[in-house]
């Protein structure tokens, strides 16, 4: 079940400070490397350079070149080596520089990492956490802006995690690193430094003004498979994750709609109980995600809501998503859901 506010932080957390998502992710890796000498960070430019978004900055200097090291530009090699490390007792945290580059590693992830526990009857596991920036918002064009989360939710044996705040990013990343199975940890690059308020023509809100920007410096974890109700309401339920949590919340509040917004946080495992409880209460449901529509995770959510809440629904489930096209550079802000398209869907849903 979900919490409106996450309260499961460990007593070891120490002082709470303001962080953006990059700093929180960096802090999570540093905390885990201090606690567990088997945690290894690896990837393209993660060492001396500190990562293309600086998420691994300072880790090599602190923990040394044997625990934080650069790899060749070979995604299948990065993941293949990480699987071997995990099978023999290490806990690797490989970074794929952009989610768009993860496709060459699919065979390693799908055929090896996801199946290792099953095919070995539990003799081996693959406790690796694959970090990767995903989604748009930085004008990266078609090869630096994709949202491939739906691919991994289809693969049995892989967990898929997507945070929307620095607090969640750190707690979920720690839980992912401690997990004994492979985790795909997608980081919404559009909100690395602060959440947009949902409008292309207004600046991002600083994380220091957002409740999710208050992050304990020490260890804490957020259970995988536990959604968060970020905004209680009774008129309808909005299901979202990553950047779209902030866009949906800003749109709903600007329109003055009494919507309940659920941040899924993890797609697999999915907190279906919280979704079902909310939809049965509100009678209406909308799914918002940035990925393309056809075969997107919104289709799975729609099916689950229909199967479990059919007699409580007062209108069909609405989906607001990216378009079924290659990701456009010049039309980026028209591509992913914004206040106009979300607002139109909200009006339609409440009218039915």
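Sequence proposed for the structure above (352 residues):
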């Amino acid at each position: 079940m979900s919490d409106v506010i996450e309260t499961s932080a460990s007593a070891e957390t120490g002082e709470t400070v303001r962080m953006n998502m990059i700093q929180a992710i960096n802090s999570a890796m540093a905390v885990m490397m201090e606690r567990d000498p088997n945690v290894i960070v690896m990837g393209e430019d993660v060492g001396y350079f500190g990562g293309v978004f600086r998420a691994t900055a300072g880790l090599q200097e602190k923990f040394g070149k044997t625990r934080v090291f650069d790899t060749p530009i070979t995604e299948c090699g990065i993941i293949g080596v990480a699987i071997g490390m995990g099978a023999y007792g290490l806990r690797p945290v490989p970074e794929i520089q952009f989610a768009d580059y993860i496709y060459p590693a699919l065979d390693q992830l799908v055929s090896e990492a996801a199946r290792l526990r099953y095919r070995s009857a539990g003799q081996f596991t693959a406790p690796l956490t694959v970090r990767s920036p995903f989604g748009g918002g930085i004008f990266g064009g078609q090869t630096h802006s994709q949202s491939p989360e739906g691919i991994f939710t289809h693969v049995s044996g892989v967990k898929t995690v997507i945070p929307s705040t620095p607090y969640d990013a750190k707690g979920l990343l720690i839980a992912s690193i401690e997990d004994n199975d492979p985790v795909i940890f997608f980081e919404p690059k559009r909100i690395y430094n602060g959440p947009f308020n949902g409008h292309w023509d207004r600046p991002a809100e600083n994380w220091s003004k957002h409740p999710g920007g208050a992050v304990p410096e020490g260890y804490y974890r957020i259970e995988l498979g536990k959604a968060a109700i970020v905004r209680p309401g009774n008129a309808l339920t909005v299901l979202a994750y990553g950047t779209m949590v902030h866009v949906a919340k800003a749109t709903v509040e600007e329109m003055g709609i009494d919507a309940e917004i659920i941040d899924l946080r993890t797609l697999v495992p999915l907190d279906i109980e919280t979704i079902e409880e909310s939809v049965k209460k509100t009678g209406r449901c909308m799914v918002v995600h940035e990925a393309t529509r056809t075969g997107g995770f919104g289709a799975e959510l729609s099916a689950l809501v229909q199967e479990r809440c059919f007699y409580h629904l007062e209108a069909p489930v609405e989906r607001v998503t990216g378009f079924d096209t290659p990701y456009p550079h010049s039309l980026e802000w028209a591509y992913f859901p914004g206040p106009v398209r979300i607002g139109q869907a909200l009006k339609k849903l409440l009218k039915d």
